[in-house]
Design a protein that fits this description.
Layout: H1 2-16, H2 24-34, H3 41-72, H4 76-87, H5 90-103
């Protein structure tokens, strides 16, 4: 079980890398907005909707995870929750990386 927990911690660390910088979600969103001509309108609509949903849900979910961590300590299920929470924010990051690769 300890090996599984260590594996989950490594995955959580890797998944969290694009969001270490404070306000990095706004940076990724800004890259997408400034390069809006690269994307079809429906992709932009979905990205803006998803960014809005994540901006409301992530702080609440993070607080809930912190409460669970205070009650139960750090468990593999909390690692999985953190991984899923970060992966839900990835569409904007992936679109920003795509825009940067197209522009550069």
């Amino acid at each position: 079980m300890q090996l599984f927990g260590a594996f989950l911690n490594i995955i959580a660390f890797i998944v969290n890398l694009p969001f270490w910088i404070p306000f990095s979600g706004y940076v990724w969103g800004g890259i997408v907005i400034f390069n809006f001509k690269l994307f079809p309108w429906w992709v932009l609509g979905l990205l803006f909707f998803w960014s809005f949903v994540c901006s409301k849900a992530v702080p609440e979910s993070s607080n809930e995870i912190k409460k669970q961590m205070a009650e139960n300590g750090y468990t593999p299920s909390l690692s999985i929750q953190v991984i899923i929470l970060k992966l839900l924010q990835y569409p904007t990051f992936i679109a920003a990386v795509y825009a940067l690769k197209k522009v550069v």
